[in-house]
Amino acid sequence: MTDTILTQLCVRITIVIDGKNESHGSGVILKFKENYYVITAFHCIYGNEKQFQNVKLSEIKIEEQKAFNTPFSEVEIQEIVAKSEVDDWVLLKLKNIDTRRIFPNVSICDEFKFDTPVAFTGFQNINKNQSRSYKGRVLNEVSGREFRITLTHKDTFKAGSDDAKGLSGSGAFIIMDDKLFLIGILKSVLGDDASNDDIKCCSLTEIAQCIGLEVSTVIMDQSLDYWGSNRFNEIGIIDNRDLGEKIKAVNTDFSNLQIKILCQQLALGKSELMGISERDLSAIKYRIFEECQEELQIFLEENDSSILSDEQIKNLIERYTDRGVEILDIKSKKYKYPILDTQLIKRIVLDLINECYLSFDKEGVYDE
């Protein structure tokens, strides 16, 4: 759902001069009162070296996409409201947009904390026809009208700045309790920053002032386990086997019927957990993962053999479950989690095994 909303707010920007596509970037749609705007990076409109400094409105092509992989529709620009070459942003007012659609409510924010989860969506040069969503976290708070975010370990610019090209102008969002806070616009990602998956963003304070938008502050509920959620999103997966493969790796004779039963329990757990927010579920999974990592290492020290019996496998699943119950009971004294019974915690354990986080052998030991 979140990716769909961010796709709806994201636009593709192309500078077209004499019928030739000269430049490509991204932008974000913002509604205020009855007007619609697009915010993007200055260099997406005027070029990295201001080679398009005399660009006409008719040469700026803005296209929106209602959902992933759907046809693009072009929106017309009414005027360039304001711009800043120094801070690398441009604010454009739109003329025609489908006002019949339900437009998500977005708040502008310029105060937020280090390590707060962030999401953004843009159109990379390497695949201009499909938007791509990324998750990250705040690396530095606003200073000198800019701040930095960094990607989580699950998302990365594998080819450095080549992967990042086209994402400039994308909106950086904090999503909290189903509320959207737009906190900045992605600027150029070059050199060492791209290699480290770090991105500079411009803050929105001056942009908001241009159209009279109120700027708010993100107040984080201290009873929620944001730290655990952030940590889970930063785990780099190293063991890509699923539940069945992990069992067969240590016991080739393990019953296929028993594996099927475990997979059915896993599926039931996923269905039951759908009502829990992604933030809460990722925090719960991290707390269980962290405890079970320790339990796995204890188990491996107790068992030298690479071959396990049926009972050893079932016993380790139960040990994982017990550790999960214990840690959530402990952490519930500080954080607020959804109420989970032992059966559901066991199904979360099975999910962690299936999703490459836990196993029955040394391949599942993560170095953090």
From TrEMBL:
<protein>
    <submittedName>
        <fullName>Trypsin-like serine protease</fullName>
        <ecNumber>3.4.21.-</ecNumber>
    </submittedName>
</protein>
<keyword id="KW-0378">Hydrolase</keyword>
<feature type="domain" description="Peptidase S1">
    <location>
        <begin position="34"/>
        <end position="191"/>
    </location>
</feature>
<dbReference type="GO" id="GO:0016787">
    <property type="term" value="F:hydrolase activity"/>
</dbReference>
<dbReference type="Pfam" id="PF00089">
    <property type="entry name" value="Trypsin"/>
</dbReference>
<dbReference type="InterPro" id="IPR009003">
    <property type="entry name" value="Peptidase_S1_PA"/>
</dbReference>
<dbReference type="InterPro" id="IPR043504">
    <property type="entry name" value="Peptidase_S1_PA_chymotrypsin"/>
</dbReference>
<dbReference type="InterPro" id="IPR001254">
    <property type="entry name" value="Trypsin_dom"/>
</dbReference>
